[in-house]
Amino acid sequence: MKRPLNAFRSNAKLAKITWGELSKIELCSLKNLTEKYNLSVVAGDLQFLECRWYVTHSGLLGIAQRNRCAGMRTVVDKALSDPASSRWVFKATVYKSPRSRGFVGYGDADPSNVSSLVPGAEMRVDASRAVNRALRKAYGIGVCSVEELGWAPRSNGSGSSDQHKVSANGNSGYQNTQPRLRDRLCLLIRQHQLDAGLVKAYAADYCGTTTLREASREQVEAFINDLALRATKDRDGLICQLNSYSKSQEVNS
Predict the structure, then answer these.
(1) Model confidence over 230-250: pLDDT tens digits?
(2) Do 167 and 58 lie in a common domain?
(3) Total domain count for the chain?
């Protein structure tokens, strides 16, 4: 079912606030993604990087849920994985219906293609990559997912089992249909070439906490929205403010 026209307008408005002016081709692509897959920018279903649209893990799970996906299964390929070097290869199978033979996707992750911001998360990243590829194949989605990029942040959850079958509502482990705020923050940092350490210090100050981990989800979400707006509208001013935290760190040290 297609989203109403005002859904596209809402997506386009927020996209312009977050990423700046978009070309007609980019807006056409956004309209197609909005109407065909019922994706939402505000929900974190889409990301815009280097003039291209990318779907997120939560966006793909939403598509699966709306299409009443019967379930998913992920299995570690032990022959190709090497836990000692943090290299993992997963096989994911998506079942569109109870009688479906399944759509298969593979993912791989190791320290060389996982963000340095999340060391030790290779297994969880790989599980999401495998599921994303299987979902894109199952539902004919030609847009690459953010998590499949070499620098993609990790997904939520433990992802500790070798084999895990889940329903499309995303209630298990690393499956989560809610927008991942950590992912959005990491993407903003990379997109606008910001210093991650200074952004975290600014975030803690913004939220009124000692560290960012102590902040509530609502506080972090408000910070990310404000950061996205400032980075787009006044990046020089934002950089200047971030640098003030560098001076504070030097004084404290």
Answers:
(1) 887 888 888 998 998 886 655
(2) yes
(3) 3
Q: How far apart are CA 253 and CA 122, in angstroms?
A: 32
Q: Which helix (H) or strand (E) holds 218?
A: helix 217-233
Q: Does residue 93 share a domain with residue 62?
A: yes
CB of 147 within 8 A of CB of 131?
Answer: no
Q: Where are the beta strands (DSSP E) in 82-236?
A: 88-95, 103-109, 163-166
Rounded CA separation 246/243 (Å):
5
Instruction: Confirm if 126 and 134 have CB atoms less than 8 A apart.
Output: no
Nearest to 63 by CA among 134, 12, 11, 151: 134
Structural domain of 205 = 192-252
Cα 164 to Cα 240: distance, rounded to the nearest angstrom: 47
Q: What is the dihedral of CA 192, 194, 196, 198, to 10 degrees?
A: -140
Tell me whether residue 186 is in a domain. Answer: no
pLDDT band with cut points at 50, 70 and 90 for residue 59: very high
**76 and 155 assigned to the same domain:** yes
Helix (H) or strand (E) holding 52: strand 52-55
Give the amino acid at 8: F
Residue 187 lies in a domain: no
| pTM, rounded to two decimals | 0.59
Both 104 and 206 in one domain: the answer is no
Is the same domain home to 87 and 173?
yes
